[in-house]
Design a protein that fits this description.
Helix 1 runs parallel beside helix 3. It contains three helices and six strands. The longest helix has 19 residues. The protein is globular. The protein is about 30% helix and about 25% strand. This is Tc1-like transposase DDE domain-containing protein.
Length: about 110
Amino acid sequence: MREEHTQYPQKVNVWAGIVGNYIVGPFFIDGNLNGVKYLELLQNDVVPTLANLHPDPANPQVPANTIWFQQDGAPPHYQINVRQYLNQSFPNRWIGRRGSMEWPAQSPDL
């Protein structure tokens, strides 16, 4: 085995969530997280998984209206296309910057 050194430290981006007794994910993101990658993660992994766990009877493609989504104020979370998607998937049920409910900065939650 040969030890390798890189110019930049190795890093891994992982997204995971908790819904009731379920762990959602983990989902791994290649490279640095940006708005495009975060939106793809929401569209392709997070929201379909939540809809599968707790489907809305009127529209099984979206999570039930009892599920709230929470995120912090990281720049990728704040992009307009991400917020529009969250408004569509979680109408009046998401917490974050410019969301249905503002995320309290530095709150001691998860």
